[in-house]
Amino acid sequence: MWICMVYNETDTNVDFRLCQDFGLILSVVSLIYLLVCFPLGLCYNVLLVVVNLSNKVSMTMPDVYFVNMAIAGLVLNLVAPVELLSSTFTRWHAWEYNNEVYITLLILFNISSLVIMYSTTLLSLDYYIERALPRTYMSSVYNTKHVCGFIWGGAVLTSFSSLLFYVCNHISTKMVECSKMQNKEAADAIMMFIGYVVPAVAVLYAFVLILRIRKESTPLDQDSARLDPSIHRLLLASVCVQFVLWTPYYMTLLVHTVAGAPGYINNAHYLPTYYFLRCLSKLLAFSSSFAMPLMYRQMNKNFSNKLQRLLRRLHCRDQSCPHERSTVQQVVT
């Protein structure tokens, strides 16, 4: 890790050894992620997208949101090896990238994080709508697809504001306009508020409403249009997993915003610890790209049927598959 160069010249041998130990731990964890988690996440995200898109007729509202999160997970899968094989994460780095590549990776990472967090948030709110008003089309698959499109558009627009701060923080100060905006803490504050605080409040509000609905016994509780009961467990698990994996990363953004680390940390002894925790938190964030599809695969009871249907369709090829047609007709009715 490049931060160790500072300790090699200006601080004690104990601090330098501590930084070296942190670098070794981070290198090993990064390689384990690339060897185990990365291929699992890539395969299961592709599988989740292909299986659901090949069975569009049988897709439900939660399926659309999980497909959206899987696509964002694939973007994270593209970013992860580029970052984890750089000198920031491992001693045995394969390359060094310049500021332009850094900005591009940061944009893709921020967009993916926003899509994942807001897909989880809107899944919670739409689940409440489906529970409260099962006969309406407010949370229909058709509407959800359009909502997911707006999520991607909103994530790109939201990332643009923080992008200006990051770009100006990496170019020459000769440009007067950018010299006034060289404030990375402001960019982190924007991402912290929009990417974490707003979704957290919305999810908490949705769960309060869902718990209130579950406590009330109404004739609508027996409605056949309601979602499968297993969806509630999948929703609860997905929200918990996403916030557990993403909270450490956003907490490091909060530390950087409030304390101005590393620029305003007077005691250089805390620098290796800060950078180690920041990199480790980003590894946890990358882990959401394989944790979510694995959980969806295990907890969604209809996924296996959709996968078998896809395999039968591939087996049939151009031949007529009467069983497939009857299954689709049952889903439509």
Annotate the secondary structure layout.
Blueprint: H1 4-10, H2 13-53, H3 61-84, H4 99-132, H5 141-169, H6 176-179, H7 184-215, H8 229-259, H9 271-299, H10 303-316, H11 322-332
The total tally of domains equals 1
Query: Structural class, please?
Result: mainly alpha
Overall residue-averaged pLDDT value: 78
Gyration radius over CA:
23 Å
Largest sheet geometry: none
Domain G-protein coupled receptors family 1 profile: 44-296
Subcellular location: Cell membrane
GO molecular function, one term: G protein-coupled receptor activity
Membrane topology: Multi-pass membrane protein
How would you portray this structure in words?
With 333 residues, this protein is mostly helical. The chain has a single domain (14-134, 141-171, 180-215, 226-308), classed as Rhodopsin 7-helix transmembrane proteins (Rhopdopsin 7-helix transmembrane proteins). It has eleven helices and no strands. It has helices at 4-10, 13-53, 61-84, 99-132, 141-169, 176-179, 184-215, 229-259, 271-299, 303-316, 322-332. Helix 1 runs antiparallel to helix 2 and helix 4 (99-132) packs parallel to helix 7 (184-215). The radius of gyration is 23 Å and the shape is globular. The N and C termini lie far apart (59 Å).
